[in-house]
Amino acid sequence: MALTFRTVTRKVLAGTEAGKTKTYAMALSKGLMPLSEVCELVSSRSSFSPSDVRGILEGMAWAVSFLLRSGHAVQLGDLGCFRTSISTDGVEETDNVKFDATLIRQARILFTPGTMLRETMRNMEFVPVTPVVIEVPIPCDKEHVA
User: Fold this and answer.
1) Has this prediction a pTM greater than 0.70?
2) DSSP for the chain?
């Protein structure tokens, strides 16, 4: 399978090439796959029913959330690893000023792909999308004889 892409032209906003116009590739999605269809797909390769798969995935989401809140990183085999990260403001500590939790701006969940997903990306083929040209007949205001 190949990943389709289209090209987009954008102005460079910063750096030594600011103001130049460059063309970039943008991956195209074939749409969002709903959980019900993912469950059907997984079910077709196992002895589990789609509802069993859904229950397992929902249980997995709960467990990952619980473990991340508990301070653990969560390794899911070839799928990958989930871990937390925080963004903070720095403070120059003195006797009167100490770092505290109010300086934490946001917490995020980071995902590092596992072996299978990294291999998928390493072996990805790319195909440019061919624009579809639709010819619309130009309306004519003259009478035609059949």
Assistant:
1) yes
2) -EEEEEEEEEE--SSTTTT-EEEEEEEPP-----HHHHHHHHHTTSSS-HHHHHHHHHHHHHHHHHHHHTT--EE-TTSEEEEEEEEE------SS----GGGEEEEEEEEEE-HHHHHHHHT-EEEEPPPP--PPPPP--S----
